[in-house]
Amino acid sequence: MNDRSVTNAQDPLSTPVQFCRGVGQQRGELFARLGILTAGDLLRTMPRDVLDLTQISAIHELDDQKLHTIRGEVVDRDTRLIRGGRSMTAVLLKGDGGFARGLWFNQPYMLQKFVLGSVVLFSGQPKLREKRWEFSHPRVQWLEADDAETTPGLLPRYGLTEGLSMHDYRRAAGAATDDFAEAFVDLLPASFRDSLQLPALSAAIRGLHRPQTMAEYEAARHRLIFDDLLEFQLALAMRRRYWQRDNQAVPLAVSAKIDARIRRLFPFQLTAGQNQAVTEITRDLARDHAMHRLLQADVGAGKTAIAVYAMLVAVANKLQTVLMAPTELLAQQHWQTIDRLLHESRVERRLLTGQLTTRVRQTVLDEIASGQADLVVGTQAVIQQDVRFARLGLAVIDEQHKFGVSQRSRFSGGQTSPHLLVMTATPIPRSLCLTQFGDLDLTVISELPPGRQRIHTSRVGSPVDMAKMWDFIRRKVAEGRQAYVVCPRIEDGDEPGQIAAAETVFRDLQQQALSGNRVALIHGQMPRELRQQQMDAFRDGEIQVLVSTTVIEVGVDVPNATLMVIYQAERFGLSQLHQLRGRIGRGRFQGYCFLLSDSDQPEAVRRLAALESSANGFEIAEADFELRGPGDVLGTRQHGTLPLRVANLVRDRGILETARQTAFELVATRQLDEPEFAPLKISVLDRFRTLMDLPQTG
Ligand code: ADP
Ligand code: MG
Questions:
Q1: Which of 23, 85, 207, 683 has an alpha carbon within 20 to 30 A of 201's alpha carbon?
Q2: Ligand 1 pocket, 274 CB below 6 A?
């Protein structure tokens, strides 16, 4: 919050919080712990919710025709076993005009949530049984001590810190609203606000902390969330404009001859989705400012072919091009694919990874610097560190979804910039895409190449089912198919525990379920040559079953591998499981994926069920996002959270869409450059200049 505090003595909103009415030094220190230093901070901090005490029914007023909220003191509670081994938890409330009961089945843990003597609200549709009103699984609101005393009305509730009571917080926020709400300068012009039906900022501040109706509170919340998202989207839109203006690029033309020559290389026709992507990319490449595009496609949709097409356009235009992968394994694999496709061409191609000897590496670096090498494949780490290109025309970054707006790299290539194509392995939920990658143009491919079957996915819990599964796998392997057995990642990367798990599974399978079959083990910490040997042997069919850690997660492409067993599947994220599953079913044989899990955690069960029932990576990504939040989906936990103040991407998806559209329109129509928008523009630049590398003036 305090990033906005202005140290301008003239601004009443910069009044230190301890000087606000009803605060004082001691509470001022408690507010500081919440990041609230000034009156402005106090008022811009949204309540976490609002308690609606306007519609409380007395118990003698209840009926079973509609929803009711009652309020009462907890006077009795117990849990007992009933028929069928189920449990029933009952909580008795003494309220206005009598008693009522709340009931929960099979949720014995509810018992501890009700302290005798505490005051709670039950909401739900009651039923009269044996002359007593009962709420089955009601919505419960626990009142803090302060809430219980106050009179009916709408009571905002805030996030607290130890020592600061709800009552004190509410009083301070209320008083500050009376004293300072009018001091807020609205950054949005009135006509613009009206067209979007947004309340004025001062009105919104009052609606947050002194709401008269729920509708007023909701409109106020909407306004603050909208502002937060609008500013972020404006920054992205400005960054995009800036990128286009300041990144002069060499236009890359595609003649019919070039197009035909490239297409001839592929052993298949491009799908309609791939063709659409190629059209969008070649249109970008023909412009004199650098392409900045994100290609999103489900696993197995054929992104590699699109990348190769674009790279060969660069080469045909006598420029250099580079494909960067996140891991050695993937770089190797892309190299093999591309090398195979180009085996009869004269394109000078080089592989650059960390495992080259110093001498070879230096030679490659020299060839790239002199312009002798046309096409380079390598790992991101190595290339971004050491390489100088003579005339780079296009950079492709594969499988990059772990880097946000601020981490994405830029190449500076002297006078002109290279075109940039980013490809993601995992479909990204739309709302995340609009933020993490919100400054990129977007191509989405939603179809898979023809002839792909849906992979049969099933959860395996019991030992009996396990035995059947291994039977099935032995049979399929005997028919010539191949299998992956994946052991969970404990944390990011190849942890020792994960390797131990993989080693144990490997030994067990060799000795028992798969004895007599050719089984091998790979993990990220074995020597590269050995790992590569094993991968090659698997690709050539010499190895039938590959036990591995998640090193095979992205990109590995062996069409004859149609079986996958995932141990402790509940320990993976949904998108990650989908990604893993994408390794099989790449050829003409039916794929089977077995999710081993004996977990009965509701969240785990829901996640695995989502995977069993959906084959669509975009759907799965949305589900994962809802269940686990943005950090896990993008792996951004380590990279910090999104720079948002009050918005939440799962909750506020609808508002995001409007903010996005509004922001990009303001920039495209140049309205943002009009004087009436100057305060907003300045505020956006202040907030995001550093993070997004924006110029002084936008
Ligand atoms: P991803 O998008 O997951 O990176 P790949 O580029 O690895 O997918 O392609 C997956 C598989 O599909 C590869 O074996 C590739 O040869 C094949 N493939 C790609 N495009 C087509 C197509 N148009 N028709 C048939 N097979 C294709
Ligand atoms: Mg790929």
A1: 23
A2: yes
